[in-house]
Write a structure and sequence with these properties.
about 280 residues, antibiotic resistance, about 20% strand, EC 2.3.1.-, 11 helices, two-stranded antiparallel ribbon, acyltransferase
Length: about 280
């Protein structure tokens, strides 16, 4: 997603009085349908999951264990702080004077994948995975993905600057390679690869984006590029469509305290794209 606030979804469970153990979460994930060896994009609200032994590290451990050694865990590690068009930017700069705005631009963080630029707005789980030994991150300064597992290098290796969340991004790789999306305590429409359908429209609008990144001499440079204008005002309606029409491939169940959803990305995007093309009716 490009920055919409999301209300966590909690499952209807009585109070437990103790944190969830990692093994219990692994059981929940497998009961929901997570398979060993698959590629799984996870987007989450840890608050909805509830207390877990080991905190966020325990949740990540459960995901890695459920996927097994042949599985690949993927998270969205976007940095809207590096964009002059994101909702984050608009909120941070609202009401600033020209001088204050110029100062804000000077302080915008410099993207440098080698120095593992932080992704503070994407949540604690994404940050935990990003910092794990062996995790690899795609090179986009605004909409990167991070992956851990055998498919990580291929998944994160190609991410064109002009293609935030299109076919030449990890979102496109996930679509083409049969990956699934797990929403832990967040709605179905939070699946970021749903943005793919916007790239498939013949009349898609474009806009100029700006990023700040490390130059060859170790300084900072401001780069402008043109890309598809991304929107998320239609995502909640797409979620209703997926809930109503995707059928058996969309699975629901609790993980910890969180009402969670597991769905195949390709089938979800194809169904949403057909709806989008037909006037969202």
């Amino acid at each position: 997603m490009t920055g919409t606030a999301v209300r966590p979804e909690r499952a209807a469970r009585p109070g437990r009085g103790r944190p969830w153990e990692v093994g219990e979460l692994v059981g929940h994930l497998k009961e929901l349908g997570v398979r060993e060896g698959e590629v799984l994009l996870v987007q989450s609200s840890l608050r909805a999951v509830g207390p877990v032994a080991g905190g966020v590290h325990g949740v990540v451990k459960a995901l890695v264990e459920a996927l097994g050694a042949r599985g690949t865990l993927v998270v969205y590690t976007a940095t809207p702080e590096n964009s002059r068009t994101s909702p984050h930017y608009r909120a941070a700069t609202a009401g600033l004077t020209p001088a204050q705005l110029a100062g804000y631009h000077e302080r915008m963080p410099v993207w440098d994948r080698a120095l593992t630029a932080a992704s503070p707005t994407m949540g604690r789980l994404a940050e935990e995975v990003r910092l794990l030994p062996g995790a690899l991150r795609s090179a986009h300064p605004q909409t990167s993905f991070t992956a851990l597992g055998p498919a990580a290098a291929e998944l994160t290796g190609g991410h064109r600057l002009e293609c935030h969340l299109g076919d030449d991004s990890p979102a496109g790789w996930l679509y083409r390679n049969g990956a699934r999306s797990l929403m832990l305590g967040v709605p179905v429409w939070c699946c970021t690869p749903l943005h793919l359908l916007e790239y498939w429209q013949p009349d898609r609008p474009e806009q100029v984006y700006t990023c700040v990144r490390r130059d060859g001499a170790g300084g900072r440079e401001v780069v402008e590029f043109t890309g598809t204008r991304l929107r998320d005002d239609h995502f909640e309606a797409m979620g209703e469509l997926l809930d109503a029409q995707l059928g058996a491939p969309l699975r629901h169940g609790p993980v910890g305290d969180a009402r969670s959803h597991l769905m195949p990305i390709r089938e979800a995007v194809d169904l949403a794209a057909k709806w989008y093309r037909n006037g969202r009716s």
